[in-house]
Amino acid sequence: MDPKDLIVAGSVAVTKQGARLGKGGGYSNLEYAMGREVGIIDEKTPVVTTGHRLQVVSNDIEMKIHDLPVDFIVTPEEVMVTRSRFPRPKGIYWEILEEEKVKSTLF
Known about the structure:
This protein is of the alpha/beta class. It has 2 helices and 7 strands, in the order βββαββββα. The chain has one domain (about 5-100): NagB/RpiA/CoA transferase-like (Rossmann fold). The strands form 2 sheets. Strands 1-4-6-7 form a 4-stranded mixed beta sheet, with no helix packed on it. A 3-stranded mixed beta sheet has the order 3-2-5, with no helix packed on it. The radius of gyration is 14 Å and the shape is globular. It starts with 6 loop residues before the first strand and ends with a helix.
């Protein structure tokens, strides 16, 4: 596969600091991790999310080692640059994956 220039990750909620909350399945995080594993994305690949202004929250969203932060938030009204300081996943963290996801991830 060719290297990717941009990642678009869905979010239920996101902070202006770049923390994001997905739907809870972890699939955006896992897809990013798989891309890192095979070398088609790296820590400099921009990560964007889209949504309504109401999805941009001021309260903290807990970020874990496998969670993917965003660099940009795009709403109908504006584009926000997060300047996120959250670390990005370096790859797949096999030890924390549920068994079903391990089976579906073997590539």
